[in-house]
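Query structure, 113 tokens:
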């Protein structure tokens, strides 16, 4: 069982940056593929980015070139660096352990002037 605790997020102007963190505990973090999802009001939850155990990454087309997912296995933490944020990035962001139903608690990101 893996417990996930998120931090970061908040309100930022268009073009700004934020970094989300997701700290894992309770199991062998380095053995898991990790992902960041987001859910905007009235929309389905979607996968934004993922990172494998050997740090291969994948991104949704909507965030390619702007978002970067990374992991620090020594700190049991996965990050999502979000640059050049747009109003359409506004959503609740969740981290998740692939292959399980272990989700973080969710973090609100609001991009607005």
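Result returned for the query:
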């Amino acid at each position: 069982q893996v417990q996930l605790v998120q931090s970061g997020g908040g309100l930022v102007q268009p073009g700004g940056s934020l970094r989300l963190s997701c700290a894992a505990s309770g199991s062998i973090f380095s053995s898991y593929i990790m992902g960041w999802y987001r859910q905007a009001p009235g929309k389905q939850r979607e996968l934004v980015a993922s990172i494998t155990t050997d740090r291969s990454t994948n991104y949704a087309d909507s965030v390619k070139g702007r978002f970067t997912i990374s992991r620090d296995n020594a700190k049991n933490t996965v990050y999502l660096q979000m640059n050049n944020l747009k109003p359409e990035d506004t959503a609740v962001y969740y981290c998740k352990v692939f292959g399980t139903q272990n989700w973080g608690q969710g973090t609100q990101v609001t991009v607005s002037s």
